[in-house]
DNA sequence: GATGAATGAGGCTTCATTCAT
DNA sequence: AATGAATGAAGCCTCATTCAT
């Protein structure tokens, strides 16, 4: 069961990534290493100027590569957006994998913990999420299809399983899993006008709201509930 | 009190819009009329290709204007994005104003009605909201500042007042109002993977979830609650 | 002889100006009045932004006219440049005419006085001269020909006559008259790096230099010479 | 002392030119070579139509480059104007450097020789000087500041030193150096109405006039004087 | 005579991608 | 495998002039 919750999607040879982000390079490890640098460099500039306003030249510079080299490991600007997305998911899964969620026996507590764990992670990568959630739609059709599938399988799927465990069923499961997935980025996407209060509270409040919305927390109170 | 809930923000002479979207044209009515056409034309093409991929030439064509004429009534591509945003808010306020919300005496029922009313409106303008919520960040700093202020005052402010009426207070009010505002676009932003089920249910489910999350609905049940 | 020195060139009906700057308007006085306003408005904006960077719209605004009205009294942007030039010459001649130069019997003193008088005038209209001496070349061929002819007849001609009176002759006369004409704008065209010293001296120094260059002042000394 | 008179200002790495005319190109030699071609091509078309009426496309064509390539080596149209200016100064200094001026021991003869040498040079590059002296003012503030500084340092500075050597001093030095600098372009800027006479004479006449104006030539005579 | 909205060609600049070295 | 120079199609915006009212 553990495996079914956190199932980090590493692309394997011959798998989607290869078809989506083709490269003439032979050495698979080198490709991985270079792409890591590309993602690292690209995000840095993307966060400042957004996807459209960032030029390939700037990405190459930030990645410490020449433009020729860059195009040796990717084949279009869109590819980079896709790699960033993939990178985000990998990071998230790694975070979850080391959080001990899987060892929690009680479904309610496991869900609560997953929420907190995810929110903490997102809070640590605000820029990344802000970026992804506003730029993803600009992927070309080909990449977009895959990203949406990844999101449904990995992210929504993750919540689907956890919610299923607390006893949900039917059509509403799909609804609930998507909604939770959506709520997780609330603080980041709306963060700008929540600056005033105690940061810590927001996180608890959001978890409470989510659980209560799901009907897992009786009445409004920040002290009670299965944590 | 009625007035304080729905307070449609029409720009007056000398008001923000004039400074933000300057035009050499003298006739204010003509400006309004032409800008209406620009917004209508622009949204049509924006929905298809997104802001960045849409050219000014296409906008002019879709608006039935020459490029020169277009630039007689706006002064940059960003202006158009801003006008679209403004248009959305005006539409929303008009919708609320004719919905009879203000006549509902009970605060809980009024909130519920406002939620439904807003969701219906957003549902009728999916393209518009999908577009706005992913492109707004690309406004230049000048326009962005105003848009965020408008959102806080008009949209968040609307929920703030309604939530206040049901007995909330303190820091959480801000949190709650923003969260509700955020939830309203859930169906639109995530709509793509909720296609399967009965469409009608989603709306009710989201209202329930929201009210329950706010602690205004006792237990999970799709039959109960103040509708 | 007096007349031959200062011969203010007022265009008469059917004269050059009419052919060069056509207008459908009938009332000659009205044309004059409107054009005065155009020149006044245009120079104001020209001085700030230069000819090319100033738009017709700005000129209309600065002249307190509509664009339609503007084009009723001129027929191209170049026309305005031409009118400005003409205006400058008219101003200069008026200045000379009221300076009493003509009454000075001694040719040397008359020349000296004319130099000073011109320099003072130019000093009072720095912007105008700076503008004219860098933009004139942008006149279209038709206007340019006339402007050059006017300059040769009125400005160079003015110096030609004065220099002739002090006893010059031959080919050198042409050379000298042109050179003096050229020297008069030195302070304005180069003024920027002569800011330090006493402004008053520059004027005297330039007169001395000119007279000495012409061989009309024995040795270098700012005290001697026919003033 | 020799060195202090003709000090051709070649831009070095990290020097002004780099900041003023940025380029993404790496190879410095290639930049030099390409810019040489740009200047050569640009001047050819500038001379015909002036700066404002010449399009970037025409410059690219005349330089034998694509527009993309052109913008690889400059970053705005103004840059080109600046490069032309710089080119003119480099040419002039080269001309002076090979003229043997520095070997002339007598200050008066050295000055006279410098005047002639400069006039000959200007005469050989009429178009260039005519162009530069009427377009410089259209440089944007950033470039203009540098151009004026260059002129003051290189051109005016050159005359300043020569005049100093013949025994001038004080405030008048500045005045005299600027005036001489100004007089050098007289023939070019006014050339159009000196076409008739013997061309050769003009040059001598101007030198005489200048020296006499400076008080270095006793009386008016075209035979005497230190040549 | 007056108004100012409308035209539309053309200006400068950018940049993802390719390819010779 | 690596480099970075080269391409050229668009992109956004301007503005002198005309013309319907």
Structure overview:
The structure is a homotetramer of 227-residue chains. Chain A is 69% helix and 0% strand. Chain A is mainly α. Chain A has a domain at 85-227: Orthogonal Bundle (Tetracycline Repressor, domain 2). The longest helix of chain A has 26 residues, at 28-53. The radius of gyration of chain A is 19 Å and the shape is elongated. Chains in contact: A-B, C-D. Chain A binds chain B through residues 50, 52, 134, 137-138, 148, 152, 156, 171-172, 174-175, 178-179, 181-183, 186, 189-190, 192-194, 196-198, 201-202, 205-206, 209-210, 212-215, 218-220, and chain B through 50, 52, 134, 137-138, 148, 152, 156, 171-172, 174-175, 178-179, 181-183, 186, 189-190, 192-194, 196-198, 201-202, 205-206, 209-210, 212-215, 218-220. Chain B binds a DNA duplex (21 and 21 nucleotides) through α5.
The largest pleated sheet of chain A is described as: none
The average pLDDT of chain A is 85
Strand percentage of chain A, roughly? Answer: under 5%
Helix and strand content put the structural class of chain A at mainly alpha
Q: Helical content of chain A, roughly?
A: 55-70%
* Largest Cβ-defined interface: A-B, 39 and 39 residues
CATH topology of the domain at 85-227 in chain A: Tetracycline Repressor, domain 2
CATH class (first level) name of the domain at 85-227 in chain A: Mainly Alpha
Series of secondary-structure elements of chain A, N-terminal to C-terminal: HHHHHHHHHHHH
Number of strands of chain A: 0
Low-confidence stretches of chain A: 221-227
Give me the CATH architecture of the domain at 85-227 in chain A, please.
Orthogonal Bundle
Overall radius of gyration of chain A: 19 Å
Oligomer: homotetramer
